[in-house]
Amino acid sequence: MKKAGHAKGYLLVLVLLFVCISCNQKTNKSKPKKPNILLLMSDNQSADHLGCYGDKSIKTPHIDKLAKKGLIFKNAYCSAPSCSPARASMLTGQDIWSLGEAANLWSSFPKVKVYTQLMEASGYHVGIEGKGWGPGDETVTGWEHNPGGVRYDSFEEFFNEAEKGQPWMYWYSSRDPHRPYKKEGWKNSGIHLDSIYVPPYLPDNTEVKKDIANYYNEIQRFDEEVGSYISLLKEMGELENTMIIVCSDNGWQMPRGLANLYDFGTKIPLIISWPEFFPPGREINDFVNIKDFAPTFLELAGVPIPKEMNAQSFVDILTAEKKGIIDPQRDHVIMARERHAYVRKGGLGYPGRAIRTNDYLFIKNYEPKRWPAGDPPLYGDVDAHMLHYEAPTKIFMLKNKNTEDIKPLFDLAFSKRPEYELYKIREDPYQMNNLAEDDQYKPIVQALSNRLNNYLIKTNDTREVGQVFDWDNAPYYKERDKRPKPSKKAIEVLGLEEEYNYLD
d(Cα 197, Cα 366) in Å, to the nearest integer? Predict the structure, then answer.
């Protein structure tokens, strides 16, 4: 009987020990230690153009493999469809209208708190490679280096400067797939023209498919870069404690993409992987904004989030076991744009605000009398450098703008737009049929307009409250764009003078 009692006691101790170990494991899983953070960002890439997002004609094996081990966000958006403001919003965790000149392209950067500095102050080793924040001039406001961090020539150089055991944050900002594309680059890429899907707002012909194929080739090159960083992490023994983020800053450099508040300008790919702590293999349908990166990184790093960061951390989404919709309140995203390139007389921008839900996209254009893609004949917002490089799709549309087939597409991309735009996403995923003036949808317009305006007022957007910030006359730190010299191709096709002056 005594032996039996001892046996029961031992069994009870073993059970309790197992329970304690299990509890500790669960606790450790939910409260990860400070991660290393590797942010890999492409430049001007729309969400759909990766294998893991369903594109059958592109080959992105490294990103696709990462997605299987991580999370794919199906509703990730940038704050603005333009490089500088989108990246400024990401660094500050704020809406672009709160950042003064930084709401524009080729701007300055305000002296405000950014997550990179806050993480560095908490003990992180922080650095960037490539573009970082930009294009613009941060030095005019007193920044000693890019707000994204100290610039390095390579990850190896950065890593070797870190102290042993020191957590780090590294942002590799690729130039791919920003134009100019490698001419005929697609030919040796394994991409087949007949497999390429052309969205219906662009002409479906061989010339356009070649342009898209060259863009795909640049994305495939970015995928190789992603693969090289993963290999480096493995070699350095850093993979297990590194959170990897793959994303872009805004949409592709095509008509109705870059510098537009439509999905192909604002919807971005977002893959996040850290299998040690984030349950893998999940598709997430919650809406997230690139500005949400700042509070998310800070929370993971154990750094207090400044009150001026009105973005929302999504650590709860990352650590959840669920897929699909995690937080029902994340049912929309709000975006904005001010001046993209210097493409209108006097440096005028094309201000707009937008709200995107699962069902609708609503856009408010504050200056509908202006040309949305820049003044004719160049329509330079599609390519901020004014055709210094080839843009075959745009050139084709300009050359054939009066033909029966192309004119409707040309008007969608380049002609003036009404004050309000409403698109029903499920029926019109490419946002080609504006329903804002349809009596049937007036209640929807009113509801979304109210929801958008309430947020803009709450966050002190000067477009809705008080005196409007003078974004039109803010400095533009790229002098050549004010007196552009179009490419020989543009001169030939459009009959332009060699110099086109936007200053007068």
Answer: 33
Shortest CA distance to 45 belongs to which of 213, 295, 266, 261? 266
Strands 71-73 and 270-273: antiparallel
pLDDT confidence bin for 326, thresholds 50/70/90: very high
Binning pLDDT at 50, 70 and 90, where does residue 4 land?
very low
Identify the residue with better confidence: 266 or 7. Answer: 266
User: Where along the chain do its domains lie?
Assistant: 33-324, 337-494
What is the mean pLDDT of the segment spanning 409-429?
Answer: 98
E runs forming strands in 150-262:
150-151, 168-173, 242-248
Closest by alpha carbon to 93, among 260, 287, 300, 307?
307
d(CA 36, CA 458): 35
* 484 neighbors 502 (Cβ within 8 angstroms): yes
The 10s digit of each residue's pLDDT in 385-417 is 556 677 899 989 999 999 999 999 999 999 999
Rg (CA), the chain: 24
CA–CA distances in Å: residue 228 to residues 12, 224, 285: 51, 6, 29
Pick the closest to residue 84 from 384, 371, 356, 461 (CA basis): 384
Q: What DSSP designation does 243 have?
A: E
Structural tokens at position 499: 């110099």
What's the CA dihedral at 96, 101, 104, 109 to 10 degrees?
Answer: -80
- Side-chain-facing half-sphere of 260: CA atoms under 13 Å: 31
Q: Is 308 exposed, middle or buried (0-12, 13-18, 19+ CB in 10 A)?
A: exposed
Residue 93 contacts residue 289 (beta carbons within 8 Å): no
Q: In the prediction, which pLDDT does 492 show? A: 81
Identify the CATH number of the domain defined by range 337-494: 3.30.1120.10
Could you give the CA distance from residue 87 to residue 149 in angstroms, rounded to a whole number?
A: 13
pLDDT tens digits, 445-481: 999 999 999 999 999 999 999 899 999 999 999 998 8
pLDDT digits (tens, 9 = 90+) for 206-240: 999 999 999 999 999 999 999 999 999 999 999 99
Question: From CA 388, how far away is CA 86, in angstroms rounded?
Answer: 24
Nearest to 258 by CA among 126, 162, 122, 394: 394
C-alpha distances in angstroms, 114 versus 89, 103, 147, 311, 371? 9, 15, 7, 12, 34
- Angle at CA 326, nearest 5°, toward 321 and 328? 160
Fold of 33-324: Alkaline Phosphatase, subunit A (3.40.720)
Q: Could you give the CA distance from residue 354 to residue 362 in angstroms, rounded to a whole number?
A: 6
